[in-house]
Amino acid sequence: MSAPKFEWNPETAPANPRQGGPDEAQPAHEEKARRIGVYVCHCGGNISDYVDVQAVVDAVKDEPGVVVAKHTVFACSDAGQQEMQEDIEANHLDGLVVASCSPKLHVVTFRGVAKRSGLNPYEYNQANIREQVSWTHTNDPEGATHKAIGVVRGVIGRTRLSDPLEPLEVKTQQRALVIGGGISGLRAAIGLADVGLAVYVVERERELGGWVGKFGPMFPHEREGRDLIASLVQEIRKRPSITVFTGAEIASKAGSFGNYLVGIRVSGSGDSAETITVDVGSIVVATGFDAYQPPEGSFGMGLPGVITLPDFKALVDGTDGPLRFQGKPVRSLAYVYCVGGRGDGGNAHCSRFCCSATAHTSIRVAGLDPKIRQYHLYRDIRTYGSFELLYTESRKSGSVYVKYPDDAPPVVSTDRDGLKVTVRDLLSGDEELEIPVDLVVLVTGAVPRKNDGLVGILKLPIGRDGFFNEIHPKLRPVETVVDGVLIAGASQGPKSSAESVASGLAAVTQSAAVLKKGVAELDPLVATVDPDKCTWCGKCENACPYGAIEKLSLNGREVATIGEATCKGCGGCVPVCPENAIDLRGYTDGQITAMIDGLLEEAMA
Length: 605
Known about the structure:
alpha/beta, Rossmann fold, 14 helices, 30 strands
């Protein structure tokens, strides 16, 4: 059953006592009476459990210019969108306010609603009353409701001063750049070429392949990683539209979305290097990850016979007969899980693939010699999805799994007989076990690859975990805040090879959707300069993180000019201007002041 909705009719409503009379001067933007629709979302209880949405509607229904005021269970649902479209058309609305979740999630959704209804999409504004209100004030519903009223009232004030804006159109190059020659980057390059785009692939190493190119049999298909890479390289050679640079790195980037000029530094023989400039419409970053390297002494690291999982996998992949390490036969070994992950080594994240990779490796060890004793020392096993079958097969092949407490990690030491691991086993009554072994394998996970130079050149956003950060993990999983710069594979977080390929193909889709049209539309919410006020002090140029501001000679004066296609609308230049010569479309001084007034009015009520 849907929630009741309130619709306000301006013809029958009482006069608004807060609206100025005929003798009161009105701002220029308010000379024309606005017709604004306001929709307050329940968000399925995420908002309405803590905010009285009916009270919010009642409080804002008499705001100047508000013609429709309603609350709805899910504003983003098909039914919710359809209702808004019908109201916009029936009431000739020229402004739309949706009070719901973060604008990061549904800006595209509600701009689409406006556009389909004939309303300028930039006269829609969103009030965040979920993340900024209901979720942060769960212990104070009354206070949350008052805050929500202030936030919505402020956004209505901003909408009254909004102007109909048009997207910025830029021509796009029919070429793309892929940074990284691992499995994700190679598959992305092939996909881009197959949709008709020219592609440049830049790989820092001398050979293509990344991690997968070093692997033997991989789960779940048991195909050799080296063979997989070889087949992808062969496919690339069949496509003349793909140009590959190995032993190369990105040296510079200029231009803007759709027309990036990228400098590629290619190493030659000795210390020689050549820089080549290419012009591309989009950039796919698939630079992969690094394996965690435990410090000396961590879980016995540095002791003879203590190695990491990547090194052990290389040992197993290169063995056909009995397993030997440094010339000695391996009769027993212990795997220590979560080394460098889930809090160890300062890394809070789980690398997701480590458990499956270790179980798969132990199955291969058992295939080499079923008499080898294998002990898996773990806190939790995360062989998710179909990989659970690997865990079952590993146990059936003879592996013994020992669960240790979070606060009592295994201790690796040596005595005259060799290596031993001391561990408490929660599965056998919290008994302390002392396990003599020939080899200790530290199961290390993925950590962000060091790419400081690339991050600085491309202005790549970094998440709290150190990996590259997407706009939204579900709605925009490969896009970044830098238009035309996409991320794929394990550069944005731990992934299996299949997941890395999937994200690479997602980046292909996003690139092709824009570049194949030849024209891209950018948000017009960018900074503007009043040349009559500007005296060019250079402070705005220093404040801009995107290099969008330059000095221009105009009528014998030096003033600032802003490249609209390069500007990201961050607003960093606005407060540093001593002449107040810079404003931001969609967030003008007048609009921001109106939002503050709306908040203050509720705070003082």
